[in-house]
Amino acid sequence: MKMKKKLALTDILEQFRQDERFRDNIVHWTTIPPREARCVPFPADLDQRICDTLSRRGITSLYTHQASAYEKVQAGRHIVAVTPTASGKSMCYHLPVLQRLSEDPQARALYLFPTKALAQDQKSELHELIGETGLAIKLETYDGDTPANIRQSIRKAGNIVITNPDMLHSAILPHHTKWVSFFEHLAFIVIDELHTYRGVFGSHVANVIRRLKRICAFYGSRPQFICTSATIANPKELAQQLTEERVELIDNNGAPSGTKHFLFYNPPVVNRQLNIRRSATLEARDIAASFLTNNIQTILFARSRVRVEILLKYLQELIRSKLGPKTIQGYRGGYLPTQRRAIERGLRQGEILGVVSTNALELGVDIGQLQACVMTGYPGSVASTWQQAGRAGRRQGESAVVLVGGSTPLDQYVISHPEYFFDRSPETARINPDNLVILVDHIKCAAYELPFSEGDRFGRAEITEILEFLTEEQILHHSRGKWFWMNDSFPAHNVSLRSASQENVVIIDISERGNERVIGEMDRFSSLTLLHEEAIYLHQGVQYQVERLDYDEKKAYVREVQVNYYTDANLAVSLKVLDEQEARRLWQTECGWGEVSVHAMATIFKKIRFETHENIGSGPIHLPEEELHTNAAWISFPESLLAAIGREDVERGLIGLAHVLQHVAPLFVMCDPQDLHVVAQRKAVHSGQPTIFLYDRYPGGIGLSDQVYKEMETILDQAEGVLYSCPCSSGCPSCIGGAEEGGKTLALSLLRVARGGSAHVS
Amino acid sequence: MSLKAKLNRMRGHLAIETPKAADLPAANIPHLERWRELDAAPHGSADDYVIIRERRYPLDYQHGSYRFRELADIIRAWEEAGRSSHPLSAVGRRAGDLLFFDTETTGLHGGVGNTIFLLGYSRVEGQEVVVRQHFLAAPHAEAVLYQSFLEKAREATHLVTFNGKSFDWPQVKTRHTLLRDLVPGLPAFGHFDLLHPARRLWKRELPSCRLSVIEQTKLGVARQDDVPGYLAPIQYFDYLSAGDPHLIEGVLRHNETDVLSLITLYIHLSSLLLEREGEAATEAERLEIARWCEAIGELEHAAKGYQTVAESSSALRGHAKLALGRLYKKQRKWRQALAVWESYMQENSHVPQEIYIEAAKLCEHQLKDDEKALAYTLKAFDLWKKRGTILRRKSQAEREAFEKRIVRLENRMKMLAKKDCQF
Questions:
Q1: Do residue B177 and residue A180 have CB atoms under 8 angstroms apart?
Q2: pLDDT digit string (tens) for A595-631?
Q3: Per the CATH hierarchy, to which homologous superfamily does domain A39-250 belong?
Q4: pLDDT of residue B18 exceeding 60
Q5: Which residues of B touch A449 (CB under 8 A)?
């Protein structure tokens, strides 16, 4: 057989331009020109040993952002540096920290990374750097894997301690008396990947930092914060909220980059009447295949774990004959750490040609720089999209990013309005450290660490009432102006920073008798719809069927199978308003905000055939109901509508509009689209009116629905825009979710009511 | 830093008069009469005070199987035996140096928030044993708790505890760190932790090595109406919310018994270790003590202990012989080692394969007795072959090692036989 010649990236792009299979579907093509490096000489006061080390590595100057970070930190400021992927951002903190340690061997620095993997990466990088300078700096990671026998020496003598927020929360702060000299000399707190500290996790971490600062103050130190973040709209605000300090923003990126082609690809319409397009998954597969078969290292992003596995299965089959099975790997949350490390290494060393990933690889895990990136569907936010796109791109040479639009309203909106994406500033990261559930948890932990005194605040939070509450609950004891921890428990063990991580369901493969093994894990809420009995669970491209889900023991027993379908489960949600806290009129509708209780239950699942995606069967799911107390924003329509346009039609209109809002609203409040859910009710329990609710998917709420309430008008305007710009005639999966006769008109007439018009269906 | 803050930081180093208990305006202390009934009185200032409970016992008082007076005797016995290297040795100490110490805390784990609310100890003072308990009547007075403790315990040099090395004392250090600007530093006490000796001696025999179990089975201490230790946190929380001293009485009595039993336990352990007259250690205890001596390098004492057990009629004498043989080997006393092993072989139908091998090596390399060496090797090989059949798992390397040794010994014996013929 004659070997086909491998094409270079530019040739493939040229083919895309020519070939009608692709040409007509590329709706937008932006070429981001290469950028020259902007450099400045080493700062005059930088230690000679550090200068020499950099010179030996061929570095003779600093990028502008690195130099600014160094100067600001030297001047005693807290900073946040915002830089794209692969711009040498870690030097923004390594340089000032090493400089201080070269002057003061007593000084200490704490490095916080959101995951253990990132911590390991940074440790090996920094270890080499320190070794080359010859400075006597002790660098250690302190996490769950650190052997007990070296923990003491780390506590007593580690100059740089690398850890994660979870470890700080449950192992370091509650034992701070073992870290006296560390806290006494703590000069820097480095927070890398700042943008990941948003939503629930960010709100928890902000409180952990409040506790950390309290302990530092007790030992008389006042450390400087050095943060780095990917591009988001409000890095400075987020840094200031997390650290509760005045922070200076550094965004004068001086790193060079090569030419980058950014393609928007909309799958072809296969049913014009219903506006049904070819599946984004299949299109993404084909595009990725044309890169991979030409030996171009490619990353393919998918939006769910199931999609990752489906794509992996497709590609492995497609490529097997040409490349051998090992060269394309999956990467997502459920894989075990060792497996993930091996994949990262394989990518860096080029042994793995392609990887299919969820947004798990958005983070700065070091996998080197790939040449092509394909996104299956819009990742949900401008910031995420740039992060994922940043995985492709080298300092020199060309790279390509292809965004393949899915059928959701948001995807279709973005793909047909490229300017929305390219001109819009990225999203805002929000946290709410004063969420009562989260705040109370951390006040307990803080009281355990040091008693509170009258008049104390916890960061910015006013806490006297909470302290009094905890005293009544006999958790604290009030004695002469101070509140003391007075309980026999260890509070940090009852608080998990990542809401569901303590309750993960373990997945056990029982295919081989006597050789049962754990192949992964999954949070409890996801397990309702992904690990119910008879579900097809995909792991590394292998299909397993769930035989039994032991929900109490949190174990799922799976067996390997080979079937031509996957499963998709329905979640039934009911919602009740407990307390309306704010309300206002909006023409004929009412907007409200308050506390609600939500009950969620997995009901049935469908079996869906690969390739054709047709429904070939279904079954019931028997799992307990999950309950959630949270906050919601809602919009209620007048009851008179029911008579005017009919009950059935109102319901159809609500469902259609809810579908649009589910996709539009997350744009305005950021966070994962999973964090904000939408429910429509024809007759809401609290008012009897047709209502659409948008609620925070975390107990107590994290401030998303508050924002929705405030921006309801804008959100409704955007929803209207989505409906008008959709080319379908009466509704499609890309706007109202289905092709029901008149559905789109009904949704639009509801919107008109909210915008001061009449409901009349013209 | 403000002067006030600085003064506070230096407070531990400054001479600040703490008012005596008698100076306290009694009217301000709630339940004063009830505390008196418990032999307790406030200490500190009216704002910041702790309760100190003090109980005195004459030296002739018998707690369990011993009188307190015997503490002085046992220290003398250590001196006379000259055993200064043993971890429990009191050589060079006076009775009053020892602080028999135990705490009660609000939890069981070692985190910062686990508060010590009771520091209790017993100590010989003059012609009495004094039990003193410093009780945290209100959490804000913690600095006074440690100040008063350090003041009263100043004269002691060694702590005697039960699990205090890994729990009580580290927890004292933890809480002290929180108050380090207000309280003088902790002294560097010597430390005898009796949990580990107790485990060594009795873990095979007793269902658990908790102090209460040892009291009952080994020390002849009978507790009446005792409040189990794990209830202490809850009783303290109850006391804090109601303020009634009687709610904490049970914990105080429990702790008192604990610190008194530590004296008895120390006397008892020392008596066993020193083989004091009239103190009949069981053969099991003797064997464990000998092992302990061996572990810390007191080889002569170890050998003597093993010998006593080996020569007894105890069921453990076989164990003692094996241990003694190994010890002799370690000491390069080859003939004695072989003699002990051979006596073991005579007495026991089942002999561990290793013993034959050890004996064979010893005969071949040290005693140059090839005939015996061959005999023991063959016995070991026999055992190995039998065991191999049972386990269905034979290592080729092991077989080769046996065969090599056998061939070597046989060849050498043939050569010797030839030589004999020639002459």
A1: yes
A2: 898 888 888 998 877 666 678 888 999 888 877 778 8
A3: P-loop containing nucleotide triphosphate hydrolases (3.40.50.300)
A4: no
A5: 112-113
With CB atoms and an 8 Å threshold, state whether A490 touches B109. Answer: yes
* Residue-wise DSSP of B22-82: GGS-GGGSTTHHHHHHTTEEEEE-SSSEEEEEEEEEETT-EETTEETTHHHHHHHHHHHHT
How many Å lie between the alpha carbon of A454 and the closest alpha carbon of chain B? 13
Residue A488, min C-alpha distance to chain B (Å): 4
Does A699 contact chain B (CB < 8 Å)?
A: no
Sort out which chain A residues have CB atoms less than 8 A from B177's CB and list them.
177, 180
Inter-chain contact B107–A484, Cβ cutoff 8 Å? Answer: no
> Considering only CB atoms, which chain A residues are within 8 Å of B173?
177
Taking 50 as the pLDDT cut, the residues of chain A under it are: 1-3, 500-502, 762
| Element (DSSP H or E) covering residue A11 | helix A9-18
CB-CB contact of B118 with B251 (8 Å): yes
pTM of the model: 0.78
Q: How close is the nearest chain A Cα to the Cα of B384, in Å?
A: 31
Encoded tokens for B364: 């071949």
CATH of A9-33+257-423, one of 3.40.50.620, 3.40.50.300, 3.30.1600.10, 2.60.40.3360: 3.40.50.300
Select from A488, A489, A490, A493 the residue whose CB has the most chain B CBs within 10 Å, as the one to mutate to test that interface. Answer: A488
Q: How far is CA B3 from CA A214, A659, B10, B11, in A?
A: 22, 65, 10, 12
Name the packing angle between helices B283-295 and B317-330 (round to 10°). Answer: 20
- Write out the two tokens for A460: 């910015």
Q: pLDDT digit string (tens) for B375-391?
A: 888 888 888 887 766 55
Which residues in A lie closer than 8 A to residue B178 (C-beta atoms)?
177, 450
Which ipTM did the prediction report? 0.81
* Per-window interface: B 230-269 vs A, CB < 8 A: 233-234, 237, 240-241
* Region at A688 (left for phi over 0; alpha for psi -120 to 50; beta for the rest): left
Express each pLDDT in A186-201 by its tens digit: 999 999 999 889 877 8
In DSSP terms, which residues pair with A568 in a beta bridge? A606
